[in-house]
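One chain given next:
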Amino acid sequence: MPLSLWMSLAAICAMGAMSPGPSLALVLRHTLGGGRSSGVVAAIAHALGVGLYALLTVWGLGEVIERHPSAFRVITIGGALYLAWLGIKALRAGRGGALGARPTAASHRVAAREGLLVALGNPKLILFFVALLSQFVSPEMSSIERAIIVLTAMLIDGGWYVIVALGLSHSRVLPWLQARAHWINRISGVLLLGLALRVLAG
């Protein structure tokens, strides 16, 4: 995979991971309630769930593209519409949302279970990955290239939420984020709408 193509993939994965939502709320709750280690455990477990969805999507997409190109186009359009809906939702979120999550006290086992379930229990991730990975997957891709895509999605997701958990260990970080939540939501919304347009035009 060319470096420029991988950098585009990494940038889009990072944008998806940074978008406020239930995953961010989960890591916030466990970090604020159980400390740094609980937040890190939740982040890693969430990344494993994301990696599984990415794995299923990458191998499934190649087969769909090869055997049913028209069906793949329909799936891609559906994914693009979902990205657009996420963007509109983020633009309308204002200052509220995941950044206002309440803390919860829980063990590492609970943090791991909830981190995994939030990822696996969110079938919308499949739509996100279909829209995202359709830009990078082709039937002739090697297994190594597919593995790179899956690992990129998983490591960026886990890395971002680990950074969130570590950052929230400092008491000044969360108030700073909450004060700028409306800008975070607006930027995420614009980027998601732009990605949706790119997928539709692709």
